[in-house]
Write a structure and sequence with these properties.
Blueprint: H1 2-22, H2 36-40, E1 42-55, E2 58-64, E3 68-73, E4 76-88, E5 93-102, E6 105-117, E7 129-143, E8 146-153, E9 161-169, E10 173-184, E11 187-199
Antiparallel strand pairs: 1-2, 1-4, 1-11, 2-3, 3-4, 4-5, 5-6, 6-7, 7-8, 7-9, 9-10, 10-11
C-alpha cells in the first residue's frame, strides 16, 4: 500500500513538472495535447493590438480593433482601414498579407519567408519566442489612378529578421508581445505593444 502511495505521489509530481515545462509563454495554457509547432501552423487573422512608442519628448500610441488602425500623437489622430493575416506552415515557411485603405489610397504588402522558434537564452525559455526571416516582400501602392509596385528579395545573411515574444499560444489564439528601449547619447526611445491573432 505504501508503495502504491509513493508511486501515485511521484506520478503527480512528475505530471505537474511536465505541465509546467509545456507552458512557455506567460499566458500559455497549462496543458495542451498539441505540440507548439502544431498550434502555430495554420491561418491567422490579426484581431486586436495596441502599443506605445516614445522618441525624445514625442509619444505615439496606436490601437487596432481588427478592422481599423489608429495612431495618435499629441492632438493628431489618424485612422485607416487595415487587415493583417498570417499563414504559418508546419514545415517552417510563412506568408503575411497587410492591406491598408483610406480615401483615394490603398497599400498591399505581401511578405514570405521562414519561421522557427528560438532556443532558450538567459531568462527566456526554449520556444518562447518566434523568429521570422523575410525572403521576399512586395508592396503595391495605389494613389488615385496611379499604381506603384516594389519588390525586395533577400538571401542568406542579408535577409532581415523579426523576433516576437509569444505571450500566449493556444489552439485558436496567439498573442505576440514586444518591449524594448534604445539609448543613443542622452536620447532614449522606447517601443512596446502586443498583437492578438485568432485562427479561424
Amino acid at each position: 500500500m505504501k508503495t502504491l502511495v509513493k508511486v501515485t505521489v511521484a506520478t503527480l509530481i512528475l505530471g505537474s513538472l511536465a505541465l509546467e515545462s509545456c507552458k512557455k509563454g506567460e499566458g500559455d495554457p497549462a496543458l495542451s495535447f498539441r505540440s507548439r509547432k502544431a498550434r502555430v501552423a495554420g491561418e491567422w487573422k490579426t484581431t486586436a493590438g495596441s502599443g506605445t512608442s516614445t522618441a525624445g519628448s514625442t509619444t505615439t500610441t496606436w490601437t487596432y480593433d481588427g478592422a481599423n488602425y489608429t495612431t495618435t500623437s499629441g492632438s493628431n489622430s489618424v485612422t485607416v482601414a487595415r487587415t493583417m493575416n498570417y499563414v504559418f506552415e508546419k514545415a517552417g515557411t510563412y506568408t503575411f498579407t497587410q492591406v491598408t485603405t483610406s480615401t483615394g489610397y490603398s497599400e498591399t504588402i505581401t511578405q514570405s519567408g521562414t519561421w522557427n522558434f528560438t532556443g532558450g537564452v538567459g531568462e527566456m525559455k526554449n520556444k518562447s519566442q518566434m523568429v521570422m526571416t523575410i525572403l521576399s516582400e512586395s508592396t503595391v501602392t495605389v494613389i488615385g489612378s496611379s499604381t506603384t509596385t516594389t519588390t525586395d528579395t533577400y538571401t542568406g545573411s542579408d535577409a532581415p529578421s523579426m523576433i516576437a515574444d509569444i505571450y500566449q499560444l493556444k489552439n485558436k489564439e496567439m498573442i505576440f508581445k514586444y518591449a524594448g528601449t534604445a539609448t543613443s547619447g542622452s536620447s532614449t526611445s522606447s517601443d512596446s505593444g502586443e498583437w492578438t491573432m485568432t485562427q479561424e
